[in-house]
Amino acid sequence: QSVLTQPPSVSAAPGQKVTISCSGSSSNIGKYNVFWYQHLPGTAPKLLIYETDKRPSGIPDRFSGSKSGTSGTLDITGVQTGDEAEYYCGTWDIRLSVWLFGGGTKLTVL
Amino acid sequence: EVELVESGGGLVQPGGSLRLSCAASGFTFNEFYMTWVRQAPGKGLEWVANVKEDGSEQYYAVSVRGRFTITRDNAKNSLYLQMNSLRVEDTALYYCQGYNSGQDYWGQGTLVTVSS
After folding, report:
1. pLDDT beneath 70, residues of chain A
2. At CA A47, angle to CA A45 and CA A101, rounded to 5?
3. Which of A35, A107, B26, B60 has the fewest CB within 10 Å, making it most exposed?
4. Residue of B4, B32, B47 to mutate when probing chain A, most A C-beta within 10 A
């Protein structure tokens, strides 16, 4: 069981918006930035969002991140079939002195 | 072109040791925080260890603390993970990752299988 809690799965039709949550605590998300990764089977993970709400170059603005208190959120607007993947949040935990990944959320595009 | 190439994985018996290597090219290695991340079969990503740009500080997951050691050689643009006292639950695909201010690079991984 992960310290960062994500829903195991979300689904959306093409073109719709999907939101993936990442719930933590005051020792991790409450204190540090949130990062989001996309992981497709057989490939290396890809950074989607860094420092809570920033996009690396090349990441479309359909992907956005935010944080409120001890929870982070990844929004994907205009979902495409190519977005089907596992999504992970990540952040540092000051109490454990470790980096944490959420358990992952499988996005299915219907 | 940026490349991170892991090597050193393989089949090892419980209690054995392996040393993973990650060769980096195409970016300024000594400016990047380096990390090992693993994914066990059917499981999610698990952070293993990371090391600061100059190698002065290392951090470890509780599950590997005292058994694994992360090091880097900036002169050789290389990252290492010495894994001792391996357990069946260490079986995973091990990724090498480099990060600096939104620049994030990953290798394709090297498979470690711990089994008798």
Report:
1. none
2. 70
3. B26
4. B47
